[in-house]
Amino acid sequence: GSHMGKAAIGGPFSLIRDDGKRVTEKNLMGKWTILYFGFTHCPDICPDELIKLAAAIDKIKENSGVDVVPVFISVDPERDTVQQVHEYVKEFHPKLIGLTGSPEEIKSVARSYRVYYMKTEEEDSDYLVDHSIVMYLMSPEMNFVKFYGKNHDVDSLTDGVVKEIRQYRK
């Protein structure tokens, strides 16, 4: 029969956590993780997606007993300082980890996760960042398992992740 390979998504990274500590993908090993790439000045999509992610990780814990670590990675390193990211993530969930870095570090992690992002028209320091709207489910070994697009609501995201976790354990 045919065998499907895993998508080449993910890989090593080194970014700065919203508490000021440098972290790599190794710091996230041992637990299921959902990564979301966005930016703190995002007017509506990022807040909507992070509210959905926050609700889903609580429901996943309820339905499966598994703690999933939610991670927000900024694609706007010029404006998203460690402090800015810290203030932002605490609005959504106490467990949400915020990561930022230099433009080079962000470009590298975005490339390894196949995340598209591009600054749009600038007016002074006010601009938006066009970006992929995707959540990445990563296994406890930080291997890519599945991605979830904007079309998923809290319940379908929860059910999808719980299903992947259960299948993975077999």
Task: List the secondary-structure elements in sequence, H or E.
Answer: EEEHEHEHEEEEH
Determine the structural class based on helices, strands and strand pairing: alpha+beta
Number of strands: 9
Uncertain residue segments: none
Percent of sequence in beta strands: 15-25%
Largest sheet: 7 strands, mixed
- Kindly report the average pLDDT value: 92
Distance between the termini: 21 Å
User: Helix share of residues?
Assistant: 25-40%
| SS field, number of helical segments | 4
Which term fits the overall shape?
globular
Could you state the oligomeric state of the chains shown? single chain
Query: What is the C-alpha radius of gyration, as a whole number of Å?
Result: 16 Å
- Widest sheet, order of strands: 2-1-5-4-3-8-9
Features:
170 residues, seven-stranded mixed sheet, alpha+beta, two-stranded antiparallel sheet, single chain
Protein architecture, described:
- This protein has 4 helices and 9 strands.
- It is of the alpha+beta class.
- A hairpin with a 5-residue loop joins strand 8 and strand 9 (144-149).
- The longest helix has 20 residues, at 45-64.
- The radius of gyration is 16 Å and the shape is globular.
Any chance you could write out the topology, listing elements then pairs?
Elements: E1 14-17, E2 22-24, E3 32-38, H1 45-64, E4 68-74, H2 82-89, E5 97-100, H3 103-112, E6 117-119, E7 129-131, E8 134-138, E9 144-149, H4 154-169
Parallel strand pairs: 3-4, 4-5
Antiparallel strand pairs: 1-2, 1-5, 3-8, 6-7, 8-9
